[in-house]
């Protein structure tokens, strides 16, 4: 029936082509075997899902397979944000979680994420074990009908929201934020964050609007629910039209976040990550290591040096970030995609908490989002500029291009000397104090990504185009 391979964060495939009920049952059986091997099956498993086509039905199929293996399931009552599912693993003291979501992928896809007992992404070694345990045929996946499983109390349908909300209130002063007097526009990108900020921050002195909050798995006005331009362009325009103080953005499953400022300008992912780290270090006066992926900002290196905290760099994906966050008890960990984890929470991306922290940053400093960016640059002594090119890439062309990238040893990129080459994930060319260029293949889609961050805005496009040429494009 075909191999099922976990990418950067889970298995994703096109609905009805490779993402079928039979294949969901197969991969669930593999995860059940993994839980048994690691003596986690007796603790049960949390299963949740997003708003994509068939997600609730695929979640039920996964629950039936777990129940068929005698493993108790806590099945969410409705579509649920990924950070809520991750926190529920800890709150339920479960052995892990299954999350039916393709996150930011196009609408034709769905996915299957797995989590460990800490609510974190499972390590690459663990994912390899799960892959090896997936049976070749769905007939080898055990199954108990949902009605029978509920009757035997092997499946419990429940609402995880109250426990998560109570947990949020221990991390940030939600009551104070509720009475901040802000005008807030929320962009949930047709996804699981819909209604959440109205629920958390409404009822006080704030004015809150939502855009793209209805259930529509076609994701109109965007190619995919990924919190970057141009997908968020309509929301940025709406921010100005409504006179909002800030735009809060979440991707389809709400583990990623994004910010639009009061002028309708996007605060890119690298700036958002750096601002959140600065908020924790400067405003909250907390200390601890920073964990970032190879594609994240050099501003974090500067902040780590300024505040005397350690910094660790990993490959792209929370399957690398989460284990390091746990190992070093990091203050914050994150990646270029807009996913950030925070100490005191589970070691997993939380776009809801991240947006609440950003609002608290604005409230405690009295600064607008654009002023916070300027303030960060003033603190670091220079500005930073980032951009990325995504190139759709057929699998058959990848080996040749990968070889070109792996063997690239330029002395200069866009006229700037290359001072080092980092090969943690892809190929990253360090351009001294001018910035960096990174070329790597996506772990979730057939896409090659070319990224750069530089301290001279005029260098952004020349550096990106130089990266394209290095890849033979």
Q: What's the overall geometry?
A: globular
The percentage helix is: 25-40%
Count every helix, treating DSSP H or I runs of 4 or more residues as helices. Answer: 16
Number of strands: 22
Strand content: 15-25%
Radius of gyration: 22 Å
* Ends distance: 35 Å
CATH architecture of one domain: 3-Layer(aba) Sandwich
What is the assigned CATH homologous superfamily of one domain?
Alpha-D-Glucose-1,6-Bisphosphate, subunit A, domain 3
Structural description of this entry:
- With 473 residues, the protein is an alpha/beta fold.
- Among the domains are: 11-162, Alpha-D-Glucose-1,6-Bisphosphate, Chain A, domain 3 (3-Layer(aba) Sandwich), CATH 3.40.120; 268-349, 3-Layer(aba) Sandwich (Alpha-D-Glucose-1,6-Bisphosphate, Chain A, domain 3); 385-470, Alpha-D-phosphohexomutase, C-terminal domain (TATA-Binding Protein, 2-Layer Sandwich).
- Helices cover 36% and strands 21% of the residues.
- It contains 16 helices and 22 strands.
- The protein has a six-stranded mixed sheet with strand order 1-5-4-2-3-6, sandwiched between helices. Strands 8-7-9-10-11 form a five-stranded mixed sheet, sandwiched between helices.
- The chain is globular and about 65 Å long.
- The chain starts with 10 loop residues before the first strand and ends with a helix.
- The model has no long low-confidence stretch (mean pLDDT 96).
